[in-house]
């Protein structure tokens, strides 16, 4: 909105625009994926590369770059809508004219700034414009552009990586999840207020492309978030539950990863509970888990023993209890 450039990803507005030395963004993405597949052919053929996670936005996640730290965003700000380059604005104006309301061809002017809180804005507050006629039109367009972008890129990924398992990662924008508007999710492109399932269209798109859903924050505890930032109305467990159920109900394979460094049994048990829910009547579980945040601390004896125990439990092995 302020004219600054974000280097994290290309605007979805140029997916089909020939502005990259005569090529569209989709052509560039496909050429890169095909080049990667050819260059690492031996690793694919020998089975060393078992899954490809296709980047669909900042941090590889299917979302808008709505909360960039380099532009001043700090947790738990609501973030800002990212629809102000000339190509996105052209798409918005076209959608507004097709709806018969050309005046709607602009972003909301009362959505605050990166570090606003929902109640401070006219758009995200309870009963705010997000749930009015213009707000619903804008959010529907904004989220559809994101889903369409993901669909186009994943369709090409299936061609570039034919025969390989492909994954797509969703962000866990869990702050303000316990408010009516779910403001931070809205600016990220997830149209998921309390009266609407904003992940259903994404799950359908992933299902249509036959890809695995990857979700982070398997290790986060809602109570911990409420202790540290009670004003953020965060609920990582509630969000993970919604996304997991949405994927599993459609029969999607689901993969996961941890958000924070995991070194103790409490963190490992939380990840295990998310990956393999004990009380799920359908015995649903993650198809794979990526352990992130490796550090020299992991090599310390007690930490390594806990990690070994975690890996064995993740694979369903019975383990002897260790002293915590």
Short structural summary:
By secondary structure, the protein is of the alpha/beta class.
CA-based shape: globular
Strands ordered across the widest β-sheet: 1-2-3-4-5
What's the main sheet like?
A: 5 strands, parallel
- What is the count of DSSP helices, taking H or I runs of 4+ residues? 10
- The class by helix and strand makeup works out as alpha/beta
Which blocks of ≥5 consecutive residues have pLDDT under 50?
none
**Oligomeric state of this protein:** single chain
What share of the residues does DSSP label as strand, in percent? 5-15%
H/E series: HHEHHEHHEHHEHEH
Integer-rounded radius of gyration = 21 Å
Keywords: Carbohydrate metabolism, Glycosidase, Hydrolase, Polysaccharide degradation
Protein name: Beta-amylase
Enzyme class: hydrolase
GO molecular function: beta-amylase activity
Characterise the protein shown here:
It is a single chain. The chain has about 325 residues and is an alpha/beta fold. It is about 40% helix and about 5% strand. The protein has helices at about 25-40, 40-45, 85-100, 135-160, 185-190, 200-210, 220-230, 235-250, 265-275, 300-315, and strands spanning about 50-55, 165-170, 210-215, 255, 290. The termini are far apart. It is an enzyme of class 3 (hydrolase). This is Beta-amylase.
Can you tag this structure with a few keywords?
324 residues, alpha/beta, 5-stranded parallel sheet, 38% helix, globular
Set out the fold topology.
Elements: H1 25-39, H2 41-45, E1 51-53, H3 86-99, H4 133-160, E2 165-170, H5 183-188, H6 200-209, E3 212-215, H7 222-228, H8 236-249, E4 254-257, H9 265-275, E5 288-290, H10 301-314
Parallel strand pairs: 1-2, 2-3, 3-4, 4-5
Helix pairs in contact: 1-4, 4-6, 9-10
